[in-house]
Inverse folding.
């Protein structure tokens, strides 16, 4: 496991950029090209609730560098469970980790997922690079499409494996933008397609969090039966509001997160 939180996020970021070239363009639009000007609110990671690779196995990498568990979330329709983690240093990004409740899925999907996870070396899960190690298996594009018909989440994992599913711009820290509407307009003017599931803006000042996101880039994946372009990763934007106690809200809103998951749906 990494002993340094900054190194871990640098590696996650570099790995994310490999399949999300639009992220660089987002930075140029919203800040300068220096990553420092765009503060990362949180990242999200996906996994399966199998003992070898469950949420807690991913979380261990963050707990090792000073994170603590903060909230839990249920997504019944998508068959997902999630937790979020915060660092003792509030300037560090929050971490949102979800897992697919495999036993609630069809026997066909369960079989594919178990076969994929069986191919992961036990030692790989605790290795420094696990959170940005990608896939430890190869599936066919046909299998990917079959998974997609049942669970976009499972299909995304089959194609991309372990990596940040998205990074998130903290609108609160942007110098020239005050509202999420301004950020969305700037993105649309530059030709970005936004996730409109549940509206362009998910959440509201009343729930203390507003979020929007781009639709995932398409990137090529080498499947066992050829190379195909499929949705990769996306960029999210978050504006947080003050709680009655004067502290900024640091949690997540399940109803909004539910729609954010759909940023990796095919266009």
């Amino acid at each position: 496991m990494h002993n340094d939180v900054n190194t871990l996020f640098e590696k996650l970021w570099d790995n994310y950029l490999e399949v999300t070239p639009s992220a660089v363009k987002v930075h140029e639009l919203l800040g300068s090209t220096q990553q420092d000007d765009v503060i990362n609110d949180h990242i999200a990671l996906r996994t399966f609730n199998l003992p070898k690779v469950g949420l807690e196995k991913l979380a261990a990498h963050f707990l090792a560098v000073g994170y603590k568990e903060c909230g839990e979330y249920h997504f019944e329709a998508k068959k997902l469970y999630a937790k979020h983690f915060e660092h003792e240093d509030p300037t560090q990004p929050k971490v949102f980790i979800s897992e697919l409740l495999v036993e609630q899925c069809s026997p066909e999907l369960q079989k594919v997922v178990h076969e994929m996870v069986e191919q992961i070396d036990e030692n790989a899960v605790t290795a420094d690079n696990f959170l940005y190690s990608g896939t430890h298996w190869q599936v066919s594009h046909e299998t990917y499409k079959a998974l997609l018909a049942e669970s976009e989440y499972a299909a995304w994992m089959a194609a991309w494996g372990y990596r940040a599913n998205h990074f998130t711009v903290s609108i609160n820290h942007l110098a020239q933008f005050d509202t999420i509407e301004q950020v969305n307009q700037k993105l649309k003017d530059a030709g970005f397609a936004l996730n409109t599931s549940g509206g362009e803006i998910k959440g509201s000042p009343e729930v203390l969090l507003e979020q929007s996101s781009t639709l995932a880039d398409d990137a090529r994946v080498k499947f066992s039966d050829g190379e195909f372009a499929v949705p990769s990763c996306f960029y999210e934007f978050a504006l947080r509001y003050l709680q009655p106690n004067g502290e900024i809200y640091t949690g997540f809103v399940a109803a909004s997160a539910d729609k954010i998951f759909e940023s990796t749906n095919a266009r």
In short: The beta strands are 40-48, 67-75, 80-87, 94-100, 166-170, 202-204, 209-213, 218-223, 226-231, 234-240. The first strand starts at residue 40 and ends at 48. The radius of gyration is 18 Å.
